[in-house]
Design a protein that fits this description.
two-stranded antiparallel sheet, 6 helices, 2 strands, mainly alpha
């Protein structure tokens, strides 16, 4: 019999996998996540992006390079620190990220519409808990 932790991890993994299947761009899940972080942070250093993504700086640097090569983001010198650069969304990055999110949200909205009002309320409450679990460092 699976534990609550196992069932939760499996359910989250399956939902994540299903949401990824709605992607139609050539971007990887990691690249989309970094794009999302850049959108939230605004112009940011690679270190800031790595911290938000909770990955190493070399890892995020490789992802940033791919996104730069394909013009999804831009890079400019940091105005206060010549050793740093700022990464920002390009128009193409904004467009692709928005399209991917719309596609994902449309699929999820259709699935949510099959739930009862009580189930949607319970899921909304559970969502708040999932966000807390994902953001807590404990």
């Amino acid at each position: 019999m699976p534990t609550d932790s196992q069932r939760l991890a499996q359910a989250v993994a399956r939902l994540n996998r299903r949401l990824r299947q709605e992607r139609q761009s050539d971007l990887t899940a990691t690249q989309l996540s970094v794009l999302g972080s850049v959108r939230v942070l605004g112009p940011a250093t690679p270190s800031q992006i790595a911290a938000r993504e909770r990955v190493s700086q070399p890892s995020v640097t490789r992802t940033i390079k791919c996104l730069l090569d394909d013009a999804y983001i831009t890079k400019t010198p940091h105005p206060d620190d010549g050793r740093q650069v700022l990464v920002a969304m390009s128009d193409l990055g904004e467009k692709v990220l928005e399209q991917e999110r719309q596609r994902r949200d449309l699929w999820l909205d259709r699935r949510l519409s099959t739930l009862s009002a009580d189930e949607r309320t319970r899921l909304r409450d559970a969502t708040d808990l999932l966000v807390r679990l994902a953001e807590d460092d404990a």
